[in-house]
Amino acid sequence: MLITGGNPLMGEVRVSGGKNTAVAVIPATLLCDEPCTIENLPDISDVYALVDILRALGARVDYVPNAFMTVDPRPAEGWQVSYDDSQRLRASYYLLGALLGRRNEAEVYLPGGCAIGARPIDQHLKGFAALGAEVEQLGGRITARADALVGSDVFFDVVTVGGTINVMLAAVKAQGNTTIYNAAKEPHIVDLANFLNSMGAKIKGAGTDVIRIRGQQVLHGTTYAVIPDQIETGTLMIAAAATHGDVVINGCIPTHMDALAAKLLEMGVRVTDSDDAIRVRSNGQHRAVNIKTQVYPGFPTDLQQPMSALLTTAKGTSIIQETIYESRLKHLSEISRMGAQVRIVDRTAIIDGVTDLYGGPITATDLRAGAALVIAGLMAKGVTEIYEPHYIDRGYENIEQKLRSLGAVISREKGE
Ligand code: EPU
User: How confident is the prediction for the chain on average, in pLDDT?
Assistant: First the structure.
């Protein structure tokens, strides 16, 4: 990916549907007893991977990108996801909860996804066991089986987005009531609950730390549009600020962006919003700020990387504390090659703002690291070459096209 920096982003752009909601809602269609239609899905590689997985399980999937996906789960007899398919995306682990809920048995390999530190799934497995499943993990293969899933109390030791979603998936068709304590509160958890409830599931409390689920035997077909992508919205907001531009992001949910908006305001960026749009304007020097990543509604770890790229040119010293993942600061070593002044101690980055970054060759190591490098490239003097840009395609639909429509000079060339 080639970016010629220094062009202020100007104009309006529409945000796509949420990646992290899509990757939960698509497996959830397996719980339905009739066909379901999902709208507003982002056209990203993680969605294609899930289409392949559902088809391999025997479901009929009709996918028209940027229009709809209809899944008829009735012919799906499969219950095993291959190693290759499990490795294609992190969210392949949602097939464990969805298949357990559908047919009381599931086999999935430990998932792939971004290399941002250890990402255990012990809490997911503990939740399945609480619902009565026998869970075995051998050679990276996880098998879960139950004669019947029975609702129960599930207490999470850590707040986990994936664990909360997986237990919800398994519990919606279990016999009796399940209560999840210390649940994650991210917007896509609420969206998944709304999707399942639109099929007739009985889920209350999503968006709080206690979620109550009354198991149902049959779920009916539905048509549902997923929420806009919180992290794409945030990345576009940061890009607008980074280029001292003036951008209106349409089709977003401004309240999901409160933690980021507060930090941008603290930096001296102007952020205003209306019902479903946010305008970000910036024309002066940014001030350094400190960031500590936290579970929702705190500052999201997924925006830490693009935000820390922006802070490399803010006046003063910014301190970034990454509390969710142990290895999510690698992008800063790449941006240091462009002239950023960064010290990394354990999970903390100390950034002394510099006046300018300078373009050069750099390499993306994961999805949001890739987004951070794009921000750095947009700010830098000269041309930035980002290698391994395929990571970015996991989570951002048409990123070049969207940024180009706002005035960025960005393109992609095939590598050797
Ligand atoms: N954790 C455990 N045990 C578990 C599960 C999690 O110790 O059983 C720990 C993890 O190691 C981590 C923390 O709990 O330190 C939070 O992990 P969580 O389960 O919440 O994350 P996740 O479900 O693996 C999702 C998103 C991530 C996002 C995090 C946090 C999806 C597919 N992924 O991951 O998104 O960073 O929640 O919000 O929804 C991304 O989009 O770039 C991305 C990585």
Answer: 96
48, 66, 269, 274, 375 from 69: Cα distances, Å: 11, 9, 38, 30, 32
Instruction: Specify the ligand 1 atom closest to the Cα of 366.
Output: 42
**Is 20-219's fold the same as 228-381's?**
yes
Nearest-angstrom CA–CA distance, 295 and 185: 8
Would you state the pLDDT for residue 113? 61
Task: Compute, in angstroms, the gap from residue 360 CA to the centroid of ligand 1.
Answer: 32
161-190 core/surface letters (b: 16 or more CB in 10 A; e: else): bbbbbbbbbbbbbbeeebbbebbbbbbbbb
260 in contact with ligand 1, CB cutoff 6 A: no
332: enclosing H helix or E strand: helix 330-336
Residue 416: what pLDDT?
62
Which residues are CB-neighbours of 329 under 8 A, at least 6 positions away?
308, 320, 322, 344, 347, 349
For residues 362-382, average pLDDT: 97
pLDDT at 318: 98
Q: Which atom of ligand 1 is nearest to the CA of 325?
A: 15
Q: Which helix (H) or strand (E) holds 192?
A: helix 187-198
CB proximity list for 64: less than 8 A, separation 6 or greater: none
- Ligand 1 site-directed mutation target among 158, 307, 374, 399, most atoms within 8 Å of CB: 158
Q: What is the pLDDT of residue 281?
A: 98
413 or 293, which is more confident: 293
Just give the CATH number of 228-381.
Answer: 3.65.10.10
Domain ranges of the chain: 20-219, 228-381
36 is catalytic: no
CATH superfamily of 20-219: Enolpyruvate transferase domain (3.65.10.10)
Q: What is the pTM of this model?
A: 0.96
| Residue that wins the pLDDT comparison between 409 and 117 | 409
Angle between helices 230-242 and 367-379 (to 10 degrees): 20
Percent of the chain with pLDDT over 90: 94
